[in-house]
Amino acid sequence: MSDLSGKIALVTGSVQGIGLAIAKSFADAGASIALHGLADETQIAAAKSELEQTGAGEVRFFDADLRDVAAIDAMMDEIEAWGGADIVVNNAGIQKTASLADVEPALWDAILSVNLSAAFHVMRRAMPGMADKGFGRVINIASVHGLVASIDKAPYVSAKFGLVGLSKVAALEYANKGSKKSGGVTVNCICPGWTETVLIEPQVAARAELFGGDRDAGVADLLKEKQPSQRTSDPSEIGALALWLCSPIAHNVTGTSIPVDGGWTSQ
Ligand code: NAD
């Protein structure tokens, strides 16, 4: 469907979870991967070798802390010298639940900087090069919480709604860059519901406690509350959608926020 050979894809937070699954689907299509995240040597080496074995052109690792604008700029300088990112997936994210009154200012700042401001700084640096090439894809991993709210998630919901808004502005500013032949420059959000990664484990564990520590019962209870399909998503399903968005046929799909949420946001 998509041949990404010769393309460079930066996927933030790609050493694990949804980011790694997206990087794998791009590697399978022959892209070179700017692997990124905060991890130890073992995890980095494992992710790098998994991507190389899947078929990536080249894999280079970046460890920019996304709370640090200077570190983001240094990473983008290096990627520019490599050839510039043809595809950017702003995937890295953190989340912690607390009621609004209990959110410490430092937690608010951290969630906003990783989940929203970092995406802005990466796009600010990557998108002019995409316009010059006439091809570019920005995929921002928002959340159902970019479309609807839940209690105890004030910073996360604020950041994700912000990411949806940022993506629409960028989509409009770059809509007429490139051509049908070159593929154009598009910006979209993917909005997952419950997806099986370590990010949701604290919430799963808290719910499992109500059922004597039974994880499956905890997950079922979380799904019953919000996700009508009663099924979690696998990260590879998000990867498959991201790959489709990179294909030439998706040149006119821009400014959208696509839920992968089993009906959560249809309610
Ligand atoms: P995860 O915790 O497995 O991965 C998060 C990644 O972000 C890691 O690779 C980590 O290294 C990176 N990261 C965190 N803080 C960073 C920092 N300061 N600097 C650089 N990198 C940093 O989480 P995941 O579930 O794979 O989530 C990926 C994205 O999907 C997030 O944006 C999350 O909000 C979103 N999402 C996840 C779910 C879900 O159910 N798992 C649902 C909706 C949205």
Question: How would you describe this protein?
Answer:
- This protein has 267 residues and is an alpha/beta fold.
- It folds into two domains: 8-193 and 237-255, NAD(P)-binding Rossmann-like Domain (Rossmann fold), CATH 3.40.50.720; 196-232, no CATH class.
- 46% of the residues lie in helices and 14% in strands.
- The protein has eight helices and seven strands.
- The chain has a seven-stranded parallel β-sheet with strand order 3-2-1-4-5-6-7, sandwiched between helices.
- The longest helix has 29 residues, at 105-133.
- The radius of gyration is 18 Å and the shape is globular.
- The protein starts with 7 loop residues before the first strand and ends in a 7-residue tail after the last strand.
- Residues 13, 15-19, 37-39, 65-67, 91-95, 114, 141, 143, 192, 194-195, 197-200 line the site of nicotinamide-adenine-dinucleotide.
- Nicotinamide-adenine-dinucleotide (NAD) binds at residues 13, 15-19, 37-39, 65-67, 91-95, 114, 141, 143, 192, 194-195, 197-200.
Features:
267 residues; alpha/beta; Rossmann fold; 2 domains; seven-stranded parallel beta sheet; 46% helix; globular; binds nicotinamide-adenine-dinucleotide; SDR_fam; Sc_DH/Rdtase_CS; 3-hydroxybutyrate dehydrogenase; NAD(P)-bd_dom_sf
